[in-house]
Inverse folding.
């Protein structure tokens, strides 16, 4: 029988030497590297409350879209993934298409935010952000683009405040939290969330990041950094890598009460698809969403499995429902080259037909 | 008699190790000149560097070991045995790779236990009661003794839960190796053989992640995970309880008191927001009344949305522009 291993000892030594050389050469680059900036597309602050801010992107030209688009991001990580760097910015590409883009930066909760509930976030903060944008444009309803947990929030909000949402776009949004391939959901199913939040208060960002890393421990803790050695001598790629690291680990803590409710009702109870979810005493019925809905998900998403997103089609009340599968992962859907070419134009085309 | 080839590899390894150590030292904080000075603040991004170095070191050590001759695959030899030598030995860093993913949590917990023991002794509690099983408590300090015993029991439970979790991680490690062998068997034909250490490493990562994912999605893992988290939280709660009692004795505000104030404050903010919303709705309804009574000056009807608790940037002086 042939051996599957045909590694020449001289090649091994050469590999080690190359590894060492790249490390040595890259050391200077790494030490001299400053904290990489995000894209910082020009924007103006139009509303603020407590720690949240609503930004309006000013762009280079006048928006052609009649209805503004408000991006609703997750409470986990920061919204700047949508405007990561100049050539990897969903925001810039949406502006280039003619969209009038706003986004909510939720900020970094601290002890004062410990008791914020989902009712406070959705019927309080989010509703007032939507009102602020509606008022600026003198419109009854605006477009929402919800991302990940922010997509779940957008669904709830649209069901609860249908008159204020014209079109709804959801991206990598979990809807059915009990698909068999949902690792996060499986892990927290037996957790005593009351005990967890009572003991922790707000949930530290470091703990959240640790859990995410353990979804793919070898890839995310080791293989990724071995790949880094190959780009240590490339300042541009190294800067991109460090920018992504900054985004991954510069993340906010989670307000305790909102976390408790989200884990209990969404991850454990799967109430969004069961129709038993209550926010602020009102039942959230996805069947009440009759607005046009564009649901975009990533086929290689390890955080929100595609089936978790696809489930929306079965539960939403809208007769104008479009589903778009993107070949990529949970993050690649914003920052990959393919994403720049495919996603913003698809969103814009879909919205334009309904503007 | 010396073997020139082996000598070369040994010399090379020593040189490579020195080079690695020098590289790693670049990122270590310099020792303070004053031995009583506090430790230096972590460098920005140091967490990433530490993680990077830890990951790279494991890979680097493995490459060196594989190149040391004895583990290099030889034509015609049993490749499965060679594979075991390259990955399976306990001394190889990859053998602990999966075991290490929870090392931070596990280590933290061991430290927690140790420091709690020390703190308890220093604060006059003496040896932790209940470490050798629960015993009845009575008298003036009964409550404290019962709490100490509960904490000790919780710590032991947490350690057992953590051990059960680690067992599953080790199982993933073992199954990953079996899957690697299965995958390699499909690479035996000429043209499909693995010809670099990096190629072998990547294949191992694929196989191990696959094995891990299967276990991590199992009911058994779900139970072990939940049990571990819950056990750790019970410990944390009991520790907080005892710490707060000490704080109360010293007149120091506790986390619970601050949290309780926060809860009341948030409830008041909700009530205030609701009242503002109601007020705005009432004001919006006024024009309709005014139209019915023309003697009073008309007020323009406003269809704008409710402004409860809103703070428009322009009105509050927060308007600003962000440019590159």
């Amino acid at each position: 029988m042939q051996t599957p291993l045909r590694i020449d000892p001289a090649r091994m030594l050469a590999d080690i030497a190359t590894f060492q050389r790249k490390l040595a050469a890259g050391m200077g680059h790494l030490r001299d590297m400053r904290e990489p900036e995000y894209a910082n597309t020009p924007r103006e602050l139009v509303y603020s409350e407590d720690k949240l801010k609503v930004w309006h992107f000013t762009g280079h030209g006048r928006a052609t879209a009649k209805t503004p688009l408000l991006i609703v991001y997750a409470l986990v990580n920061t919204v700047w993934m949508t405007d990561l760097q100049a050539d990897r910015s969903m925001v810039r590409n949406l502006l280039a298409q003619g969209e009038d883009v706003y986004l909510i930066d939720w900020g970094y909760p601290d002890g004062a935010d410990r008791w914020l509930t989902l009712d406070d976030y959705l019927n309080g903060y989010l509703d007032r952000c939507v009102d602020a944008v509606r008022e600026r444009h003198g419109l009854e309803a605006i477009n929402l683009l919800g991302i990940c947990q922010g997509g779940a929030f957008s669904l709830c909000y649209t069901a609860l405040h249908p008159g204020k949402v014209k079109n709804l776009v959801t991206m990598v949004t979990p809807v059915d939290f009990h698909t068999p391939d949902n690792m996060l959901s499986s892990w927290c199913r037996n957790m005593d969330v009351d005990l967890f939040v009572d003991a922790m208060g707000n949930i530290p960002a470091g703990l959240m990041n640790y859990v995410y890393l353990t979804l793919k421990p070898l890839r995310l803790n080791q293989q990724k950094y071995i790949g880094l050695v190959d780009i240590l001598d490339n300042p541009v790629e190294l800067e991109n890598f460090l920018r992504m690291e900054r985004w991954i680990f510069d993340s906010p803590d989670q307000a305790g009460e909102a976390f408790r409710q989200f884990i209990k009702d969404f991850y454990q109870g799967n109430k969004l698809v069961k129709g038993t979810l209550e926010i602020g005493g009102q039942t959230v019925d996805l069947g009440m969403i009759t607005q046009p809905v564009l649901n975009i998900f990533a086929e290689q998403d390890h955080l929100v499995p595609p089936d978790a997103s696809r489930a929306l089609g079965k539960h939403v009340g809208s007769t104008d429902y479009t589903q778009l599968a993107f070949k990529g992962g949970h993050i690649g859907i914003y920052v990959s080259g393919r994403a720049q070419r495919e996603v913003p134009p698809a969103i814009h085309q879909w919205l334009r037909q309904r503007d | 008699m010396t073997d020139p080839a082996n000598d070369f590899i040994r010399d090379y390894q020593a040189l490579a190790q020195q080079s690695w150590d020098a590289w790693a030292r670049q990122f270590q904080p310099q020792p303070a000149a004053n031995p009583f000075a506090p430790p230096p603040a972590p460098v920005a991004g140091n967490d990433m560097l530490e993680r990077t170095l830890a990951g790279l070191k494991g890979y680097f050590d493995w490459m060196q070991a594989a190149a040391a001759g004895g583990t290099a695959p030889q034509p015609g030899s049993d490749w499965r045995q060679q594979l075991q030598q390259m990955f399976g030995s306990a001394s190889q860093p990859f053998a602990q790779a999966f075991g290490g993913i929870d090392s931070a949590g596990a280590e933290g917990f061991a430290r927690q236990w140790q420091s709690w023991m020390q703190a308890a002794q220093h604060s006059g509690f003496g040896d932790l009661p209940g470490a050798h099983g629960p015993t009845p408590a009575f008298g003036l300090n009964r409550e404290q003794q019962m709490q100490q015993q509960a904490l000790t029991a919780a710590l032991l439970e947490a350690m057992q839960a953590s051990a059960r979790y680690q067992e599953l991680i080790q199982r993933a490690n073992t199954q990953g190796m079996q899957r690697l062998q299965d995958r390699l068997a499909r690479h035996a034909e000429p043209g499909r053989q693995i010809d670099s250490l990096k190629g072998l490493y990547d294949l191992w990562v694929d196989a191990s992640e696959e094995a891990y994912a299967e276990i991590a999605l199992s009911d058994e893992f779900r139970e072990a995970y939940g049990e571990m988290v819950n056990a750790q939280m019970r410990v944390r709660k009991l520790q907080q309880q005892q710490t707060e009692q000490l704080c109360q004795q010293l007149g120091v505000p506790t986390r619970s008191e601050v949290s309780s104030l926060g809860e009341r404050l948030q409830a008041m903010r909700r009530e205030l927001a609701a009242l503002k919303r109601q007020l705005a709705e009432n004001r919006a309804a006024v024009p309709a009344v005014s139209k019915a009574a023309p003697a009073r000056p008309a007020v323009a009807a406003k269809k704008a949305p409710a402004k409860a608790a809103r703070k428009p940037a322009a009105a509050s002086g927060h308007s600003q522009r962000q440019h590159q």
Q: What stands out?
A: Chain A touches chain B through 83 residues (CB under 8 Å).
